[in-house]
Design goal:
The protein is mainly α and 138 residues long. It contains three helices and no strands.
C-alpha cells in the first residue's frame, strides 16, 4: 500500500509476479504437506530426544560447581561440604520432575502428530504457506 495515494494500491501487478507467487505457493504447500503428513511424528520424536539431552545437560551444569566445591572441601577437611548432598538431591529431583513433564508433553504431541490425516495436513500446509508468503511480501 502506498501512503502517498491515500492507502490504495498504486502499482500494477505484473503477470509474471503472480505466476511466480502461485508457483512458490504451490511448492511451499506441497513441501509443508509432506512434512506435516509424514514428518511431524518423526520430528516430535527427535525433539523429545533433544529435550531429554537438554535437561540432562542442564542438570550436569548445575551439579558441576557443587562437585568441584565438594572435591576441594574433601581434600582440605576430609568431609563433604555442608548441604552438598541436599543440593545434589534437589537438582536431581528437579531434573527427574522435568523429565516426567517433558515425557508427558512429548508423548501427547507425538500422539497428535501421528493422528494427522490428509485433510488436516492439507489445511496445515495451506495455512502455513499463506502465512509465510503473506509475511514475506515486500
Amino acid at each position: 500500500m502506498d501512503p502517498a495515494t491515500g492507502g490504495g494500491w498504486s502499482r500494477a501487478v505484473e503477470p509474471w509476479a503472480v505466476g511466480g507467487a502461485l508457483l512458490v505457493f504451490a511448492l511451499l504447500t506441497t513441501a509443508l504437506y509432506v512434512a506435516a503428513r509424514w514428518g511431524a511424528a518423526r520430528a516430535v520424536a527427535q525433539l523429545s530426544s533433544g529435550v531429554e539431552y537438554g535437561v540432562n545437560l542442564l542438570a550436569v551444569g548445575l551439579l558441576l560447581p557443587e562437585y568441584l566445591v565438594t572435591r576441594v572441601t574433601r581434600r582440605a577437611s576430609g568431609r563433604a561440604a555442608p548441604l552438598a548432598y541436599a543440593y545434589g538431591d534437589a537438582v536431581c529431583g528437579l531434573a527427574c520432575g522435568t523429565h516426567r513433564c517433558a515425557a508427558a508433553v512429548m508423548g501427547t504431541l507425538h500422539d497428535a502428530a501421528r493422528r494427522i490425516d490428509h485433510r488436516t495436513a492439507l489445511v496445515i500446509s495451506l495455512l502455513l504457506s499463506a502465512a509465510l508468503l503473506y509475511s514475506a511480501r515486500t
